[in-house]
Amino acid sequence: MTATPYEEKMLQELREWQQQMVKEPSLMSHFTRGVQQKINSIIPEKVHQAITASIKQMIRAVLFGAKYTTSKPYSHATMELKETQVLDRIDFYKKTAAAEGGITGAGGILLGLADFPLLLGIKLKMLFDIAALYGHSVEDYRERVYLLHIFQLAFSGQQQRRHVYGQMVDWETQKLHLPQDIHQFDWRTFQQEYRDYIDLAKMAQLIPVIGAPVGAVANYHLLKKLGTTAMNAYRMRWKELSALNRLPPASDEVL
């Protein structure tokens, strides 16, 4: 099966994205990670445990609830049509997150703190919608684990990003070895990487006066990054499934 012009362009974007996923961490990345690890080592273990448990329960609640409000998989369509729909949903959620960040940012510290669970819910709901538009059913527990991997890929340092990316390559094989209990997911690393990634962007949201515009801009760009990551993650799945069905999407090799 010959790739369409759109699919050729899509695969070129995928190649460029994959190169970004596997590149070595920069010196600045190593320095930043060292500082973050030092800060995390100072925080009492009980605090880490409490935050991990809180994020775990928050995400489990969204993962369990959102699947019942997500559209059925959008299977019978070209990739071009699917991605047109995906881009529309990403745009909707970017604007939603920006509005939410502006409102909570304008409300001071208390509302600023409320932004964390609200934004997390918006991000996960967007991932559910994107999965369905690419034709993947989130009724399958393994698809929901894939969503968590996408989340990690978007909001982790480069070293952890390379590790997570390695777990997502050849997902049709990898998913066969997943534990059946989501409690076995590495929630501690998940929450630390997420917090470290967004802390600098979000802390300014708690400052009076500038909180509203900072919250709106930060949320908009966080959703944009997550959307781009999700699109390329599902493009990678599409390519792998095409290969399994003996329908290579293009002659060029992708990492």
TrEMBL record:
Record organism: Rufibacter sediminis
Organism lineage: Bacteria, Pseudomonadati, Bacteroidota, Cytophagia, Cytophagales
Name of one Pfam family that matches: EcsC
UniProt-recorded name of the protein: EcsC family protein
